[in-house]
Amino acid sequence: MIPQWDSDKPIYLQLYQQVVARILDGYILEGEALPSVRKVAAEYQVNPITISKAYQMLQDEQIVEKQRGKGLFVKPGAQELMLDRERENFLVQQWPEILKQITRLNLSAKQLLAGEHS
Amino acid sequence: MIPQWDSDKPIYLQLYQQVVARILDGYILEGEALPSVRKVAAEYQVNPITISKAYQMLQDEQIVEKQRGKGLFVKPGAQELMLDRERENFLVQQWPEILKQITRLNLSAKQLLAGEHS
Amino acid sequence: MIPQWDSDKPIYLQLYQQVVARILDGYILEGEALPSVRKVAAEYQVNPITISKAYQMLQDEQIVEKQRGKGLFVKPGAQELMLDRERENFLVQQWPEILKQITRLNLSAKQLLAGEHS
Amino acid sequence: MIPQWDSDKPIYLQLYQQVVARILDGYILEGEALPSVRKVAAEYQVNPITISKAYQMLQDEQIVEKQRGKGLFVKPGAQELMLDRERENFLVQQWPEILKQITRLNLSAKQLLAGEHS
DNA sequence: GTGGTCTAGACCACT
DNA sequence: GTGGTCTAGACCACA
User: Fold this and answer.
1) Number of folded domains in chain D?
2) What's the pLDDT tens digit per position in A5-18?
3) What values do phi and psi take at A57, rounded to 5?
4) Does the first or last residue of chain A, that is N or C, have fewer Cβ atoms within 10 Å of its Cβ?
5) With contacts defined as CB-CB under 8 Å, which chain C residues touch D87?
6) Residue span of the structural domain in which B91 resides
């Protein structure tokens, strides 16, 4: 499966976000290993360094830890940690902007929530 | 006043969005002139070419029009046009993504829209 | 001038440490630009990406900020910030280990600091 | 007891340094045997090859010697030998760098020695 | 001119 | 097998 890359964002960022989403959604469990750099690179037909860059970000953010010679493993508590971080970020950074936009566009809660069932 | 540029987005885009927001919010009225490239460049300490690029985008999107020798003027009907466009874009492109994120973070769109998140 | 790289440490790390040292020692002042990636790459005969990596670290650590299209500039307050960080790190992480080593080797920290070891 | 490995340094090096420290500190005496590769590997949950590598280093450095069929034994004079080597290395290689750092961070001997009592 | 991204391919250390 | 580093060279967006 080769994902459709959004050409606006760097691939390594999209990879990073993909892994984050998968951990948040429970598809990758804590303590589990990430698929190896080479494997992902082959599967997605992307340069290994690009994968590395995404994986490096995950290490920098304390989501994943290296076991030398073995691979990268999701840290215990990572899911909770990320949920808190993302939630904080969403509520403080993104939501106020979204609300401003909603107001500016004169949209109603009713309209917006209607789409929720689709 | 020199705004704080978001170093993630190009300045010309931020300028463009700023003008759009001001028109939507009614701070700049239809038929009014935009401040001149030189003036904005001086005030914001930004390269005039960068301002031009933002203004060019506004022309491309049919929001403003050039009156030779006078400057750029907001077209009649611009506010309505933009409102429709932005609304369409928001509902189709952005809102579904936002909803997905809200779900992932285990938040309630209903409560957020009611202002109960704090 | 081509520096002698320590083959034990990655070049990008040595570059990073070099810049940090230069800021701490006042050779690069706050508000000044770093020499461009290409320039350093040419001068040191190192791949531009390697320089980039070092510069990226400095951005991540809030020591330097990007001005798009212009280059990287030392943030105001960077010297003080780094001094605090490095001092903290030295006292808490490194010095206890050094003391342990000194004790193990049956040396006297007092005499070493007084310059009497030779 | 499983030690906390420093993921920056290879495990075999950390093992080597641990043994060196134990000999220097007198926890392992000259003429005594090192614990077997298998035993350490099981206890620390580390690949036996990694232990072997550490033990090989100790042999290369003339600190221990193999007695066929019996195991590895700390050589007589090992403690003295290592003390001299490490002292030499510390004074010539490490201490000058440490002093440079102390100067750069503007730390005083008084501050540093105060922590010695902790 | 600036930094950022990606590729293809090589090499290394660690387990 | 694992991840990390570096090169040479290309291309892009931004100011």
Assistant:
1) 2
2) 899 999 999 999 99
3) -60, -40
4) N
5) 105-107
6) 79-114
Q: Residue closest to E8, CA→C1'?
A: A47
Question: CA-to-CA distance for D58 and D53, rounded, in angstroms?
Answer: 9
User: Domain check: are A49 and A88 in the same one?
Assistant: no
Whether A6 is in a domain gets the answer no
> For A48-65, what is each residue's pLDDT tens digit?
999 999 999 999 999 999
pLDDT tens for B19-73 read 999 999 899 999 999 999 999 999 999 999 999 999 999 999 999 999 998 999 9
Both tokens of A95, joined, read: 């939501």
pLDDT value at residue D117? 46
Q: Is the predicted pLDDT of residue D115 greater than 70, yes or no? A: no
Could you tell me the distance in Å between the CA of residue A64 and the C1' of nucleotide E10? Answer: 28
3-state secondary structure of D75: coil
Q: Which residues of D touch A68 (CB under 8 A)?
A: 5, 7, 10-11
Bridge partners of D73, per DSSP, are: D33, D65
Spatial separation of the C-alpha atoms in residues B48 and B12, rounded to whole Å:
10
Task: Return d(Cα B101, Cα A18) in angstroms, integer.
Answer: 13
CA A118 to each of CA A27, A111, B93, C114: distance values in angstroms, whole numbers, following the listed order: 24, 12, 14, 76
Chain C nearest C-alpha distance from B94 (Å) = 27
- C118 to chain B, any CB pair closer than 8 A? The answer is no
Query: Which protein residues have their Cβ less than 7 angstroms from some atom of strand F?
Result: A 34, 36-39, 48-49, 52, 55-56, 59, 66, 69-72; B 10-13, 46-47, 49-50, 53; C 10-13, 46-50, 53, 68-70
Left (φ > 0), alpha (ψ -120 to 50) or beta: where does C51 sit? Answer: alpha
Residue type, C91: L
Are residues B63 and B87 both part of a single domain? no
Q: B58 in a domain, yes or no?
A: yes
Q: Which chain D residues are Cβ-neighbours of A67 within 8 angstroms?
A: 7
Q: Do the two chains D and C touch, given a threshold of 8 Å on CB pairs and at least 3 pairs?
A: yes
Q: Is the dihedral of CA A19, A20, A22, A26 positive or negative?
A: positive
Question: Which chain F positions have some atom within 7 A of a protein CB?
Answer: 1-10, 13-15
A24 and A49 inside one domain: yes
B107 domain-assigned: yes
The answer to whether C34 and C73 are in contact (CB under 8 A) is yes
Same domain, D70 and D88: no
* A70 & A99 share domain: no
Provide the 8-state DSSP code for B91: I
